[in-house]
Design a protein that fits this description.
This protein has 99 residues and is of the alpha+beta class. Helix content is 37%, strand content 20%. It has one domain (5-95).
């Protein structure tokens, strides 16, 4: 149990966080903590396990209903004003502390 103490402390800090992080940043944290999985493999794993939508289109890599209900993922929406005056909305999937 003593050998696992740093991992337990890390998990407690992350799960208590009220902030969310990008999936790519989560992949970096996992790699720093000994999990050999980069961003692409993490996205693939999340799609296979049903946390992200795998259907190609506008919803690709968006959280599934399941992951939203569990509070594992959130979507951050940002409005972008372009030079010609039109506004578009960017959606970014983020992992919560619980996730």
């Amino acid at each position: 149990m003593e050998a696992d103490r740093p991992k337990v402390i890390f998990a407690d800090v992350v799960s208590a966080s009220s902030k969310s992080i990008l999936i790519g940043d989560l992949a970096k944290l996992l790699k720093q903590n000994g999990v050999e999985m980069g961003q692409k493999r993490l996205f693939d794993w999340m799609r296979v396990k049903g946390y992200l939508i795998k259907r190609q289109g506008a919803d690709y890599n968006s959280p599934t209903q399941k992951s939203m209900k569990l509070g594992l993922l959130v979507v951050k929406k940002t409005s972008i004003t372009h030079g010609d005056g039109h506004i578009s909305i960017s959606k970014t999937t983020r992992v919560t502390g619980k996730g």
